[in-house]
Amino acid sequence: MLDDTKSNKVLVEVKDLKMHFPIHAGIFKKRVGEVKAVDGISFDIYEGETLGLVGESGCGKSTAGRAILRLYDITEGSVKIDGVEIGDTPQPNLRKMRPTMQMVFQDPQASLNPRMSVAAIIGEPLNEHSDMSKAEKREKVLSLMDQVGLNRDFANRYPHEFSGGQRQRIGIARALALNPKFIVCDEPIAALDVSIQAQVVNLLEDLQEEFGLTYLFISHDLSMVRHIADRVAVMYLGRVVELASRETLFSDPKHPYTQALLSAVPEPDPWLEEKVDRILLEGDVPSPSNPPKGCNFCTRCPQVMEICKTEEPPTVEIAPGHIAACHLYS
Length: 330
What we know:
Blueprint: E1 10-25, E2 30-46, E3 50-54, H1 61-68, E4 76-81, E5 84-85, H2 91-94, E6 101-104, H3 118-129, H4 134-147, H5 164-176, E7 182-186, H6 194-211, E8 214-218, H7 222-228, E9 231-236, E10 239-245, H8 246-251, H9 256-263, H10 270-275, E11 315-319, E12 322-325
Parallel strand pairs: 3-8, 3-9, 6-7, 7-8
Antiparallel strand pairs: 1-2, 1-4, 4-5, 9-10, 10-12, 11-12
Helix pairs in contact: 3-4, 3-5, 4-5, 5-6
């Protein structure tokens, strides 16, 4: 169930989204296969909520986030944002939709132009999508710097003069410039020091409360997702294997992969740490260019059955709002 402060209106609808990248080989660059980075995921994100998207490196989380914002031309599926279908919209026609949906990138250093001042970086979306005067833009940029906790005296400085946490704040201010409804946060704290991570997450929460923002929060840091997310979707090898409210997922995970993932979270209390029953998965994650037949997780699952090796598991609603793709529940 959603928190009372959250809306019951669905802002983002993702249905059977696929993002396959072609593999070319040989002298004539013939297509010999494809990397199934995202292989048929479906979920909704409600207005004003934060949906956490978790999974180990290479499972397709970041690709999913970029595909939802149509930074890629998707292979198949449907993406609706605020009721508007953008899955098959040509890139030039997406331009007028860009103010609604923005992204905060993982590496603040790489996502900021080193030759542009902070004021120019934050103001760039305003140049592209608004008809404000120069003075109005300047005031808007300074106001955004105030909102994300940056000193407005630093407006004419360049990205290399800032710390990692400050650079991420610049990226957040740029994302907020056009008053978006939906922001994809692609591991926004992964490149930051632990001491700074909490500040950035708290800033995101404060901005969400102030502006009614909706987030897709992509991360492999489960403790941070537990702190910020309302609901959590777990990805493995291009597919969503479980989705539930934060409390349900962390207290009663159903999918064997989710159970293994949560068992790996360090326990700060040494007495409790000794009692944690770690689930160690054998083998490596299969290649997304050649996933196993049947269930993607069957090669590593401690509860594997014969049916898992031949048939793809259906997505089952175990309890209201709690779904899992596993033959144990079908």
